[in-house]
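Allow me, if you will, to draw on your knowledge of protein folds for a short while. The matter concerns a single protein, recorded as an amino acid sequence and a row of backbone structure tokens. Could you please explain, in whatever detail you think fit, how the structure tokens follow from the sequence? I remain grateful for any guidance, and I place the record below:

…
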Amino acid sequence: MALNRWSASEIRVDGAGAAHSSQICRAGAETLLIAPTQRLARQLLFLKRLRGATDARHVDAAALARAEKRWLATLDACDAVAGAHAARRRAEALARLIDGAPPACTVAAPGRRLVHEGELAKVGNATVRPDYFALFETGTGTELLHASAPDVRGRLAFRRFLRVLHVEDVEVLDGGGDAALGGIDAKKLVFAKRRSLTASQGDEILNRALLLRVVCADPLNWSRGHVYSLGGDRAALVEWKAKLAGALGRRGAEWKLRFKGPATCLGEAPSGRADGAADGARRDAFLWFFSGPRGALLVRATAGRRRSGKLEWRDAWRVDGVAAAAGDDAFRVAAREPGDGRSWTLLFASEDRDIIVALMKSH
């Protein structure tokens, strides 16, 4: 393989040739620096061609196949190291752009790998707002950084940093005022992301608009959290869903979703009360049951204010047991508050009572 070499006779050091000499030296240095990575790929290509031209019965055929396999593994390892370095540099650059982050939130901390980032439309109770999100992987879980959209200086205002528990299936929006969003014009989901679109372009993209739901907990206080409803065009949200699901799959040992669905909250009370029932107020709720190596977790959400249909995080509980209760579709949950560990009894009703009880008994 020919190498780029510069002999002394090729480098002029007189005043007239100083600039030319500098260009030659710089070109030579750049070539030498990139040569190792190019050499790996070129040698793999050489091995592939050599193996393809070698008869399968030849004595060297097996050795060539092993060499090609080992070279592919070497290239994969190099790509992984290069990718990790690039992600670390981008995380450090992102950290310098964020204003207002608490001291405990170190975006570029060792062991935290930036996986994906970008702008999405956050759907509120009656608003759609473009915000910025970044997805991280750690040795113990998956984290989501939420910040404001970049300002005119490119700066981001910190909002929250959460542990991702689950990402819901995307829901297709069919255009117009969507009932699930309390009549919010679904066009806002598109225009909040792409403010430069014309009306006709917006109508065309609207048919491919999606809504994505992400369930997150506060890593410092598991009783608090957030349920994100994120909007945007199909390509962006499909990519985000794939990145989130992939990260959770690689770090899925922490919490595994066992059940999700609507329920009616019949009440709650400290477990010392004989009836174990609650205040008697019936409230609609949405439940996610998770199981993990440290037990089971119940996340409860309520419908958003102004009847927007958006789900809002209410609380989370460590689950000690689930059993059927008296009354149609009723079931009782023995739970503890994640913070102080006080025991409570939660009473719910759901058409899926038998499924919930069976799943949680087997966790």
Summary: The longest strand covers residues 256-270. The chain is about 30% helix and 35% strand. Confidence is low (pLDDT under 50) at residues 1-16, 175-184, 190-194, 201-206.
